[in-house]
Amino acid sequence: MRAGALPALAGGGLVAAGALVVSGGAAGSALLGTLLALLALSAGPALLAVLRSVPAPAAMPLALIAYSAVVVLLGLLYVLLGDQSWLSGRFAGAGLAVATTAWLAGQIRAVPRLRILAYGAGTVSDDDADEPAAGGSPQSPSAGPH
């Protein structure tokens, strides 16, 4: 989550700093848009962390409920904040758009660094198929003849 949150905060901060030239309300609106983006985008990784140990048949309905709650919460916030005179929709939208784009760019940048091995690649020793390689899993499938 940190890989996306830090760039989003930086991008939203830049938008708010630029909006401060216009007015304090514009900067506050940009920060609010950034906060809304951070809340909505951090719900996914937080949900994955919670549902990691839940069986798949139970995880799907729970994820659907949680994501629906995020959408309803954002909709409620938009309705409540829509009539506020201090809120500039243009700057709130800019903060939201920049924070979302920066979050996605940070996540894209972080994904190749995860180094997740697929199908136990590199976990079984070539010397002895029954013995795991250093750092390998004993449950790794044995390698076939080469």
Structural features, described:
With 146 residues, the protein is mostly helical. The protein is built from four helices and no strands. α1 (2-20) runs antiparallel to α2 (24-51), α1 runs antiparallel to α4 (89-110) and α2 (24-51) runs antiparallel to α3. The longest helix has 28 residues, at 24-51. The protein is flat, with a radius of gyration of 22 Å. It starts with a helix and ends in a 36-residue tail after the last helix. The mean pLDDT is 81.
Assign the structural class, choosing from mainly alpha, mainly beta, alpha/beta, alpha+beta, or little secondary structure: mainly alpha
User: What is the radius of gyration?
Assistant: 22 Å
The total count of strands amounts to 0
Number of helices: 4
Which blocks of ≥5 consecutive residues have pLDDT under 50?
none
Query: Alpha-carbon distance between the termini?
Result: 41 Å
Report strand %. Answer: under 5%
Helix-strand sequence = HHHH
- Give the total of domains: 2
Give the integer mean of the pLDDT values.
81
| Biggest sheet overview | none
Helix content: 55-70%
Tertiary shape: flat
Give me a quick take on this structure.
The protein is mostly helical. It has helices at about 1-20, 25-50, 55-80, 90-110. About 65% of the residues lie in helices and about 0% in strands.
What features would you highlight for this structure?
146 residues; mainly alpha; 2 domains; 4 helices
Layout of secondary structure:
Elements lengths: L1 H19 L3 H28 L4 H26 L7 H22 L36
